[in-house]
Backbone:
């Protein structure tokens, strides 16, 4: 299909476009927080805060950029960004699987924290909330952050949660 | 994309009438109607093959009736 | 099927002059490679900055997660779907996928076939909403023009339809003169616009350069 017009014709229209950002189409992922918070409870959100923090801290502890982690985990960098930043976002199961593998923690447990599986474990939820409360989103991992992260990793890796703390 | 081939269509009176009606209704030439039908048929076929169902829903009663293809 | 190209002109906003570009009636591997290796990294940089500034996600450019390779694979081989791209300086500047199966809703043309724009996106460096100066102007308009032209060539009389990304509502309504059919509850509340035959005539008018 050809479209033939004069140079002036094109430029007039380009100028008319001005400062507008032109785009169209269905958002495959609804970025608006509203649609996700519809059914989520405060507890689920708290767990997801822990999930986002966990991913963020584990990444920074290894000195990885978002892109590098994406590469290693074979994921989309943009999804990692949204996981770390948006408590309302529920990730794809495959994503959680890949992150659990990359960080070497229990996949079922990470799934619960991410909001993809029903939290069957009240203890796990408690630990997640503790971790979320203890960790702060800072540039460098503070000793406190490190300690909090260590404790949480232990929780995610333990066979029997009752043994921890 | 630009090269087009000619085909002769043998249609019954009823089919020709239906084609003319659609042509008038949709403001399309008869050729355009046939091309549109081909696109629709191909798209539906592809989606049904993927496992989707083509369904009609009654707007008022919300009753669904599946259009069996393949 | 070889792609057809048309010579078009864009505005180089950095230098302030016109620049020759190309409109192609296909999205081919080279364009997808550009999307993957040039658009994505540029977008990640922007998103990281937005995240760092704690800008709420609702304000992020809303098409950032689109996967063009998946979008084109989904419709490969189907007659009803067409891709269009704009190239400048050898790099893909914009992409568009259209659907020829859809029909108009606007009362004056209800039920008549139109070219529906499934997705239209310009490269991150051409966007004006990312806090930086946009590079090339006219990419979105060029793709929109292609959709209208296709509509004419397919005997759809220039009719097109689309769901607007929120930041683009004003552009379609005021600068393109499209009919605003309101927020569409079935489509995430996005505004649905249609162009009628009359509007298309004005839009593509050779004479009417203004």
Residues:
């Amino acid at each position: 299909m050809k479209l033939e017009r004069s140079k002036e014709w094109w430029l007039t229209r380009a100028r008319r476009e001005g400062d507008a950002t032109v785009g169209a189409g269905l958002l495959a992922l609804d970025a608006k927080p509203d649609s996700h918070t519809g059914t989520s409870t405060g507890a689920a959100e708290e767990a997801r805060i822990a999930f986002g923090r966990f991913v963020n801290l584990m990444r920074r502890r290894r000195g990885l950029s978002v892109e590098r982690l994406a590469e290693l985990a074979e994921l989309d960098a943009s999804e990692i960004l949204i996981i770390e930043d948006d408590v309302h976002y529920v990730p794809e199961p495959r994503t959680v699987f890949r992150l659990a593998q990359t960080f070497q923690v229990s996949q079922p447990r990470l799934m619960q924290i991410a909001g993809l599986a029903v939290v069957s474990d009240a203890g796990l939820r408690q630990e997640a909330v503790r971790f979320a409360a203890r960790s702060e989103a800072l540039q460098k991992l503070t000793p406190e952050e490190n300690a909090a992260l260590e404790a949480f990793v232990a929780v995610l890796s333990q066979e029997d949660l009752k043994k921890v703390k | 994309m630009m090269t087009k081939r000619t085909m002769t269509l043998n249609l019954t009176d009823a089919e020709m009438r239906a084609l003319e009606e659609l042509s008038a209704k949709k403001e399309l030439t008869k050729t355009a109607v046939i091309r549109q039908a081909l696109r629709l048929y191909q798209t539906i076929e592809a989606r049904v093959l993927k496992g989707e169902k083509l369904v009609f829903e009654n707007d008022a009663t919300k009753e669904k009736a599946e259009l069996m293809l393949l | 099927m070889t792609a057809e190209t048309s010579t078009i002109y864009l505005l180089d906003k950095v230098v302030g002059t016109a620049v020759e570009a190309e409109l192609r009636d296909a999205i081919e591997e080279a364009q997808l490679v550009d999307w993957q290796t040039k658009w994505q990294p540029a977008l990640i940089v922007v998103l990281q900055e937005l995240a760092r500034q704690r800008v709420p996600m609702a304000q992020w450019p809303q098409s950032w997660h689109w996967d063009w390779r998946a979008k084109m694979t989904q419709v490969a081989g189907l007659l009803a779907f067409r891709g269009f791209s704009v190239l400048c300086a050898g790099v893909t500047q914009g992409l568009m996928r259209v659907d020829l199966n859809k029909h108009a809703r606007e009362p004056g043309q209800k039920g008549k076939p139109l070219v529906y724009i499934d997705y239209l996106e310009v490269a991150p460096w051409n966007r004006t909403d990312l806090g930086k100066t946009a590079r090339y102007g006219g990419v979105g308009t060029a793709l929109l023009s292609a959709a209208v032209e296709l509509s004419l060539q397919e005997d759809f009389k220039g009719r097109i339809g689309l769901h607007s990304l929120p930041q683009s509502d004003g552009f379609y309504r005021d600068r393109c003169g499209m009919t605003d059919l309101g927020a569409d509850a079935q489509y995430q509340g996005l505004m649905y616009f249609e162009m009628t035959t009359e509007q298309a005539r004005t839009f593509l008018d050779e004479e009417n350069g203004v």
User: Anything to note?
Assistant: The longest helix of chain A spans residues 42-61. The CA atoms of residues 24 and 149 of chain A lie 42 Å apart.
